[in-house]
Input
Amino acid sequence: MHDIPLNLPGILPVLFKVAGFTVRTYTVFMILAFLTGILVYSQEVKKARLQGEPSFLIAIGAFVGSVIGAKVLELIINIDKVKAVSDFFIFILSGRTLIGGLIGGTLGVWLIKKILKIRGRRGNLFAPAIALGVAVGRIGCFFNGCCYGKPTNLPWGINFGDGISRHPTMLYESAFMMIMYFWLKDLNAKGNAVPGSLFTLLMILYFGFRFLVEFIRVERVAFLGFTWFQVIAIIVLAWLLISDRKLIFKATNHEKSI
Output
């Protein structure tokens, strides 16, 4: 049975304080995650020689969509926290869900492409950027003490402030996405991946990984013993397997990946 997540102190929630202003470690790593993602995306755009296209606007669509999606899903799943917080503005500034960010970012790109009438798939450019961005961002979660795992006796268990040794699930995810980054970057560099296939591959592997890691994370149960994130992962995986099945079974061809 999954427990209700608690707000634990974390390893290093505050990075430093200057003139009465508190700089939180989580915020710093979230900014680094976005900047890292933008840098990698820009490099992939240059390699694909697509600087003349509205790549910047597509990136903006992904950014705005991910920010909105990350917060909306948090509000939906943790509506009780909204009611419990006296200052709604404070709640808006805190709390994000990575799954909501991925879904929102995908919808943001889709909307921008519809508006600009861009038909080509650009997922191969985003895939490495997303993987590295998530890998960096999850380190912030580690220091903040959120997204932690269940108690464990394993030697790498971490005490996030409640005196209990727990699975550092955020580091598991960071390591997984770092591996994905190098793999996807290598596949993209070879230049023969089907357009959009790397993004589909990333989404399938990430949501599959997330479904499994939820079993050792402390999250509230939706139904049938599954967490809300597992339910969402199942829906997303089913949608990808149905809508992009051709990309899944046809990972490469002789086309230049863009």
